[in-house]
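User: Structure tokens for both sequences below?

Assistant:
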Amino acid sequence: MTFNILIGGQAGQGMDTISNFIEKVLKSKGWNVFSNKDYMSRVRGGNNFTQVRFGDKPIFSHTQKLDFIVALDRNTIEYHIERLKKGGHILVDESIKYEDERVMSLPLNNLSKELGLNRVFGMMAAGVTLKYFGIDIEGYEGLISTKYNEDVRKINIAAVRKGYDLIEKSFELSNSSTKDTILIDGNSAIALGAIAGGLSFYSAYPMTPATSIMTYLSKKQLEAGIVVEQVEDEIAAINMAIGASYAGARSATGSSGGGFSLMVEALGLAGITETPLVVFDSQRPGPATGLPTRTEQSDLSFLLSASHGEFPRIVMSVRNAEDAFYQTFRALNLADKYQTVVLVLTDQYLADAKVTVPKFNLEGLSIERHTSGGEVLSGGEEYKRYKITESGISPRLIPGKVDGQIVLVDSDEHTEFSHITESADVRKAQMDKRMRKLELIKEEIKEPEYFGAEKPEILLVGWGSTYGPVEEAVEILNNDNISVGALSFGDLYPLPQKLLKKYAAEARFIVNVEQNFTGQLGKLISQETGLLMNKSILKYDGRQLSGGEIADRVREEVI
């Protein structure tokens, strides 16, 4: 059982205030919540909306069908009325004229003026919305923002109650029983995972939708004992992070695809100097500026080979806010352990979507440091930063930590002592050494998560933020007696293959489900395994696939 609310209007009308309050009330009453945003790249005007979905089971995606619409302008009605379920209603202020029996017209603006602050009509609308569903609001006063001064806060409290008393219930929903959850968006989960994973330096230049990773970390930097640097561009961001990592700080940087493009040359610097580094790419549609506030999964192919030359790298994605926390923690450990670059893919959908997830559990998580205090050296031995080893991992000293030892690095090919060389034999030996890490990295790679029929006729393959929609599509289709299973990949390169080959052998159709034009995961799978996709379900208009949409396309395009 789930319900779906849409709050829509022009930028600047307070949709975030309304949705944030509704989400907090629902979460406080034990409901599972998932909310996602669709917004334009402008400060005022346009048409933006937030969808708040809630129910008695975990939710990881949106749905197209709506139970209730809060329309702050007429455009919201016109854009979304066709999505309204039978029996659903649309809440508007009486000043918005729209002839339809489903429209619930109330004097929200006039009543707000009577309270002494006309801007609280949004909180009044929130009160109406909660009453519509029969949600108990006892204790709601504590959820009103303390950023307001006390007089304004009291008016907001009164506005919610006024709205709540305006209508009768349409549903009689009792409190749900979900406990020990947190409500968090994907970028905040990444930031918390970084803090938990021992991050000590983060540098970035603001670029939607990655910016909120930096802003969250900056708010917590004093409390967490980290340094966050907003720099002049993405070239500076990655180079500062590399420098900090060389000096011993656990470092990361992040941007969207356009900013990552500027980082590519320095990515190669991290590769040849074997400097641990985590880079977050919060994807949006390109090329160039593209759709700066929308979502896409179109950077995978780029990240697999970004920078000239070859060096070992790890490419992973995050599937939801819970996964984002643990994957980020893990990414920092892997970068340190293998002295390499770990690229973490997310996107606007996950960056901004808020979801209730179990409280993050730090038990069993340990920060793994892989530096030496000089133990690798024996009597009078000179330190070799790029010592040839069987594993490919050379001993790493932090500059200035061991008396008498200098830690040299170089962007040219180098000897074990980090002296520039043009020797063919040394080049081959160093290249072989670096690439040997991949064999060990493969042992660290996690298999995708599988859900659905044990012997599926149709196997869906997705990655990252398609996790929730694909899982919901599998449930819908199996309930209709269509044999479907799905693999949702988190780790992408090196590509985990065990479960892929197992379920591909059972299925008649292998279908990649992606938010891009060319089916980039499908291409990677074909490249690495020889398996070909029979069909592709692709979307690249900047809006996220829903579970219902995937299910419909399976029926129309696959069966």
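Moving on to the next sequence.
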Amino acid sequence: MTDHNDDTDMELYDIYRERIALIPKELKAGDAYGEYFAEVCDFVTAVINAVDMVKNGAIRSLSLKEKKSVLDGLFKNISKGYERSFLNPDHATDKLGTDTGRILSAVYAELVSMIAYAYEGDIKALNLRLSLFLEVYGSYAASLEEGEDIKADTFVGIYRDYAFDCAADMTDHAADELYRSGRYKVAGRIIESADLSDPSYLYDYGEYITDNELKMQAYLSSLPEDRIKDMACVFVGGYVKGFEATGKDIGIKDLAEIRYFIGFERVVREAVKLLSDQGLKVTFNRSQPSFAAGRKLIKNGYFSTIANRQFEADHENDKTVFFDRAYLEHKLTCYRNSLKALKKETSGYGGPAVIECFGEKPVILKAKESVYKPDDAFNALNAEYATRAVSILNEYVPGEERSFTIIAFPIPAIGPDFEKIFDETVALNTLDYETYRDIQQKIIDRLDTADHVRIIGKNGNKTDLKVNLYKLKDPDRETIFENCVADVNIPVGEVFTSPVLEGTEGILHVKEVYLNEMPFKDLTLKFDNGRIVEYDCANYDSPDDNRAYIMKYLLFSHTSLPMGEFAIGTNTTAYMMSKRYGLGEVMPILIAEKTGPHFAVGDTCYSHEEDVVTYNPDGKAIVARENSISAMRKEDPLKAYFGCHTDITIPYEELSRLYGVTKDGTEIDIIRDGRFALDGTELLNEPLDEMRGGF
């Protein structure tokens, strides 16, 4: 590979590796700290060996089995050996004590990011982490030599200094990857030139590789070229339509980002060609590998099967160690500087085109006492950072100029019917645009006359909601709901609006739902004036654990969220596919939201684009683009946005009735007993009729 590192980086790296090689000889047998540093040294040494092979090109000449052995060795303490590894906070605190074990486990987890940087050949990023480890070890060794107690606060201070010192490099690296195709271009090289018929290329990413990726690659390799092209055409077509539908000029953009699950390279390669025909270069951004920089269980970029979901969850809040007001301001300054330095490149960024995957069975993670837990002060700072970061992003990549598209496909983890489900999903993604457009327009026309909508659950669903609607001033030219067909959100099948918060109230309940890649049982949200005022679920025995789970994976550290969207999913074909193969617990939100009424908590669908007028296919302007919270954006953006938007769907069989109510009390049935009841929507019931015995 081409060496992108300067001589100073390499000299420092050589010094660090020589020092680390001496550490195992200095450790005392039988000492718990010695066990910790021995394990970490073993991991770091394996990383250094991988770096050597990447730099001299030897890793590319290895057989698939040899590449697998190298990568599996790097992930061994995350995957199979996690319970007895110091990466596990339970084990670390048991061996080293609560405070010391927790921080040293966090330091070790941060070092895991070196796997990605090793395969990128990023010596500077590696040096930052090697320095962190050597400082921690040096403090420990000094305490032993001077006969002093080992203090957790000392390690906390070192980790905090590390986070501050490398914040600029982290934001620079992320911006460079996203807006300039990156210095190291791991994914770019693979998409451009790898032999995609040979699965060994999967091990060149430096990401965890399982049967999911191998079987995905094998299946796509078996498909004829025209099938791959068709899939790419739908994907890229949605991206282009996203600009057209919102009246944005794709011609002023020269850069698109593709996010994908590793194994989809054949489709991605074809998509790159199609985007090139639109005058767009393509970038690929690795899902964040560093916990200090914001690594999360929910991946965002290119990624593979998560090696250990419990590991990801255990360390998501390690940044509470250093995330205070001073760090927040410092990180935002670094972020702004990184974008400012690439102002020309960011102005050409058109937005992401995303290939989502689904099929992995949900896992309820352990609620551990040994992990770092956010307090109210941290949650407030974290929410503030997310909001202010989006505001900075919109300065350099204006929201009113960019678009996106998302499409989803199953992965082999879905089970023995994978190929059948894959074929049905491809068909689902190409359902007739005009049929759904016309049926959905009938629903919109009737709901445009309503004052509010009532939603009542059945079959154990306790939902009882009133959703207040925007009041039209000019019905001949305006509409409340957007007619959503296959553009930014593939497949087709929903009408949606931003509800009026004031007057929106009641209970939203779902018996089982999979949100933000996490399972929820008996999720219950109570709304008053459109805001969540109470919340609960049944994932754990402890009410406190349930509330903490919702706070982390649904509220994203906010004390409350508004109802940012009310929608009616119309894709009964997708619903029947889900029922036929028992996919309820693995169906992604992208498809699940089309299989019943859904309610998004967080920002509206028009977040940061409230002032951009968009139109339905019938020519009417969509006017319900904001609510009383997002309306505060010009005075105080921190109060207007939350940086999240999560759709919660009620399946048809749990729905007793969904109907509009006019000002004079007239009721307009849209769905009754799980079936579409409005004249002109009968075609939507045909897939439902396939279910024996109905609901």
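User: Anything stand out in the second?

Assistant: DSSP finds 23 helices and 19 strands in the chain.
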